[in-house]
Amino acid sequence: MIKNKMFWYGNMAFAVLGWIFFFYGLVFTIESQTWKTLWWMVVLLWGIGHPLEMMFSLPVGKKAGLSLERTIVKTMIFGIMWWIPLKLNVFDE
User: Fold this and answer.
1) Radius of gyration of the chain (CA)
2) How many CA atoms lie within 13 A of 28 on its CB side?
3) Measured distance CA(88)–CA(51) in Å, rounded
4) Quick one: which of 48, 56, 81, 88 has the most CB atoms within 10 Å?
């Protein structure tokens, strides 16, 4: 499964849904305490996690011949769901 492109694309789609949820919470008031807590968890995990991932994703992107900008953007959008399969040669970038 870890070498399956569809597995990683599915996870990347989930990451995009997470960003939609993030921006929704910025624009609209979330009334439910459960959803509000989940929104804050996403903000904290992604706000801290994605920048920290740069120390791992930048060498992977460089080795794959990708520009610094592309590596940063993809890491910030998709996180480990992008650079791990790239490192495992699942994606052809």
Assistant:
1) 15
2) 9
3) 21
4) 81
